[in-house]
Amino acid sequence: MASEKDLELLDQYLASQLNAQDKAAFEKRLETDSDLKNEFSFQRKVVESVRKARVAELKKMLNDIPVSSIPTDGTSLLSKIGLFAVATALVGTALYFYLNQEDNTIIEPSTTEVLQEEKPAITEPAKAEEPTQEPGIHSTPEASKVDKAISTPSKAPVAEKLKEEPVAPAALDVFDPTEESTKTDAIEAGTENEKESRTPSILVETIIDKKYTFHYQFKENKLYLYGTFEKNLYEIMEFFSDNKRTMFLFYKDNYYLLNEEDERVKALAPIKDPVLLQKLRDYRKD
Amino acid sequence: MNEKEIFERICKGDEKALEFLYQKYYRMMTKLVITNSGTEEEARDVYQDALIVFWQKATSGNLVLTSKMSTYIYSICQNLWRKELDRKKRLSNEEKDTAVLLDTDSSERERVLAKCIDQLGETCKRVLMLYYFEEMSMQDIADKLGFANTDTAKTKKYKCKKKLDELVKAQYSEQDFLD
């Protein structure tokens, strides 16, 4: 049976309150004192569960924060040029087929050829803009230590996560976040270069309504989204060509064409055309 | 809020500052995962986990920033996503079945432990979480929860922990927790 003093030390050890010297001494005792070791095994799991509960609480809190992934900044000028080039194809296909079909879906196979011809204009300039290495990327923040209480998307066992694995690290495409955050800061300070700013051309507002549960409406140059959008992610994608605008909504892995032709409230119907879907997906990843 | 102010507020455990930070860098951080074979959901998970790592280090007083917060959080995202990709790669091999089997016992125990924590009062939960997760000092806990002094905080923490231990032991014997 561990003494009261030992239990106090154990508690401080688990809460990372011991200095290096006391910590080392305590770890040494753990190796020889079986009672203390048993108590440690129990207490460690209880404390871990408290940490996990806190992580779950924080994650829930973050999940409830409305986040719009509307790209308001950080998009390269070159990718925008590419975007303008592809806009003609998108306007000419998506809008045309949408407006000419009663069921509001786009299933015209001829879009394939037109869109594929334009593809290089989207991808190449965007990649050229991004640096391939981030400054300070090699300095690993001590994520692994705190990692103990974090659940990964795949619910990997904690012990496995803490282990240093002899697997070759996966190569990641990275960009310099400092550059992007500098841009964000500059926008906030109102000093952003006009060419680089990307203010959405329309205001978006979400409305919870009993009658309209998944609808949209354009009114007085404003887009109203009816439904519980705030709790989830949505993204408005705008394409411009010849002073015409085509807009799409991305929401829960589906894309929706937003028809601006009148001010009626319209139901949101997911786009089904695989070619157009692929193009929209490709664009979002750029 | 400027960078310094956000960081100071986070160090003090201000959740509003965390919310602000989450929104501020959302797109920047999730882009990393999405452009590296991840889904929107995985990107959100990784970013949230990275932000929680950052939060824990900041509140525990163990973080001295030598770069911008965004750079620091971004590199945590990179590490977490790299680990996840490696894990997926390993799971695609023969380890898959073993991992699932090993998980069953511990997840049942975790579920029971979580239930015990839920049975504690709100103040008890707060005290234990601030002490064991945020790793705050007794003085900071007393200030945050409005206790008269550090002794009150210490006593409260002691009683709450004892209560949790009893709840857990009522469900399990200590033998069940041996490694």
What's this, in brief?
Chain A has 286 residues and is of the alpha+beta class. Chain A is built from 9 helices and 7 strands.
Features of the shown structure:
heterodimer, A: 286 residues, alpha+beta, 4-stranded mixed sheet, 3-stranded antiparallel sheet, 9 helices, 7 strands, 13% strand, elongated, B: 77% helix, flat
Please tell me about this protein's structure.
The complex is a heterodimer of chains A (286) and B (179). Chain A is α+β, with helices and mostly antiparallel strands and 286 residues long. Chain A contains 9 helices and 7 strands; from the N terminus they run ααααααααβββββββα. In chain A, α1 runs parallel beside α3, α4 (77-99) packs antiparallel against α5 and α5 runs parallel beside α9. Chain B has helices spanning 3-11, 15-24, 26-34, 40-59, 69-91, 95-119, 122-132, 138-145, 150-171. In chain B, α7 (122-132) crosses α9. The radius of gyration of chain B is 20 Å and the shape is flat. At the A-B interface, α3, α6 and α8 of A face α2, α3, α4, α5 and α6 of B.
Instruction: Kindly name the structural category of chain A.
Output: alpha+beta
Assign the structural class of chain B, choosing from mainly alpha, mainly beta, alpha/beta, alpha+beta, or little secondary structure: mainly alpha
Beta percentage of chain A is 5-15%
Number of helices of chain B: 9
The rounded distance between the terminal residues' Cα atoms of chain B is 47 Å
Outline of chain B, from the CA principal axes? flat
Q: State mean pLDDT of chain B (0 to 100 scale).
A: 89
* Share of helix of chain A, binned: 40-55%
Query: Going across the major beta sheet of chain A, what is the strand order?
Result: 1-3-2-7
Uncertain regions spanning at least 5 consecutive residues of chain B = none
Q: Main β-sheet of chain A: number of strands, strand sense, barrel status?
A: 4 strands, mixed
What Rg of chain A do the Cα atoms give? Answer: 27 Å
pLDDT averaged residue by residue of chain A: 66
User: What would you call the quaternary organization?
Assistant: heterodimer
Measured distance between first and last alpha carbons of chain A: 61 Å
The radius of gyration computed from the alpha-carbon positions of chain B, rounded to a whole number of angstroms, is: 20 Å
Low-pLDDT runs of 5+ residues of chain A are 70-82, 102-140, 142-146, 151-168, 184-199
Helices and strands of chain A, in order, run as HHHHHHHHEEEEEEEH
Beta strand count of chain B: 0
